[in-house]
Fold this protein.
Amino acid sequence: MKDFKPLSRDEMRTILKARRALGSITSIPCTSCHYCTEGCPQQIPIPEIFSTRNLQLVHGRVEDGNKAYAALCEKGPSAADCIACGQCESVCPQKIDIIEKLQEIAELHA
Ligand code: SF4
Ligand code: SF4
């Protein structure tokens, strides 16, 4: 500890910035267990939709996420088809606010 040098102001600022940036990454903590999909009356591919959003949230791959979502929902149900019945949320072990997340995703792709 004899040679210990405290961080400079600039170094400290850089570390704080990095911590703020990392803290702002919020993925959807879906494990793709599919418990939610069996009883969905709209047959919405919930975990697959969340996966397209996580591409954007975690990896910053906005275009890839948009393309993956478009391909996924091209012929089938999309986030916008959710009727908010709540079945999925009642069985999700991750306690994800699925309805709210789907609404957000539907708005992003409206
Ligand atoms: S709330 Fe939406 S996504 Fe969940 S089961 Fe009902 S229709 Fe499907
Ligand atoms: S039940 Fe929850 S964790 Fe499992 S796939 Fe559905 S949203 Fe993801």
Summary: Residues 66 and 73 are 11 Å apart (CA to CA).
